[in-house]
Amino acid sequence: MSTQDLPTPSVPVGTRPEPGRLVFEAPRRGKPPRHLADLNPAERKSALTEAGLPGFRATQLSKHYFGRLVDDPADWTDVPAAQRESLHAALFPRLMTAVREITCDGGTTRKTLWRLHDGAMVESVLMRYPDRVTMCVSSQAGCGMNCPFCATGQAGLTRNLSAAEIVEQVVAGARELARGEVPGGPGRVSNVVFMGMGEPLANYNAVLGAVRRLTDPAPDGLGLSQRHLTVSTVGLVPAIEKLTAERLNLTLAVSLHAPDDDLRDELVPVNTRWRIGEVLGAAWEYARTTKRRVSIEYALIRDINDQAWRADLLGKRLRGKLAHVNLIPLNPTPGSKWTASRPQDQDAFARVLEAYGVPVTVRDTRGREIDGACGQLAAATA
Prior knowledge:
CATH architecture of the largest domain: Alpha-Beta Barrel
Shape: elongated
Largest sheet: 10 strands, mixed
Number of strands: 14
Strand content: 15-25%
Order of helices and strands: EEHHHEEEEEHEHEHEHEHHEHEHEH
């Protein structure tokens, strides 16, 4: 199967796919209009030239969008007033509109629900810490991975996002920070995690395009460090291999959630296509090639995957590897049978991993009171 924009396995909600029988198809709604953030610098110039506008304006527009974070063409003071509207129409269509924003942690954690141009809904989260600001972004509207404990997975897949729709989530957060709208004074986005709605590697081309825009030096992009970007996956092995070949300095996060294939088949249905051994093998090759430590994401679910023997099996799989385990207290979906592990079981699980010499941390549970887990706000609003 080609890894060129790997489509997402479409699995009816509430069913378990037969091993090896996942059906790959990506639902499509209206194609997002072309935006400056979809294009590299050469493509931006060509787009303006094709529209009968001066190509050299592309650099000016890039400075305004990525550098100054300006969203009003009236502020393009270095562009002739007569050209502003036509330039804006050519490269800055409205991609998304904020439907709702809720905050917690004194306003330093802010979750936004966006309506895209075709009515699809996605979420992004801004989290401000004393030493950094992290944006968690969506790469798809919905998700086709069908993980039963995940609100987004149970909603199904609507469509892939464009590169610009992904970038615009980060730029919107950067604008709030730059304008002093987030408590703590003016600031900058420092980290981006592709851990919102969707399976990032099932939308490979758009995600990679967004990575380029976010890390390209100013004025062509936001100028973030590749080392401060994390791309997660449930384990699409061909796409992991393709990402490895890019030789970028991104952090790869593997959403494992179980150390044994029997349970992972239930929790992460794509495991029936690529088994744990294959997924971790691809992850270790990524680590070997990039020298970047792989993050193993493990949502602790009470009495499901938090037993001591499973911690022992996970420790055996990971010992001696360039890996770090991120234990995630499950943020339960309302009405779901899945819930977070008991604190004592969480602590015992971590101690077993530490005994194997595996670095482990427990993820900060920010956002629990604002439907912080991906997909919860969209589901509640719908």
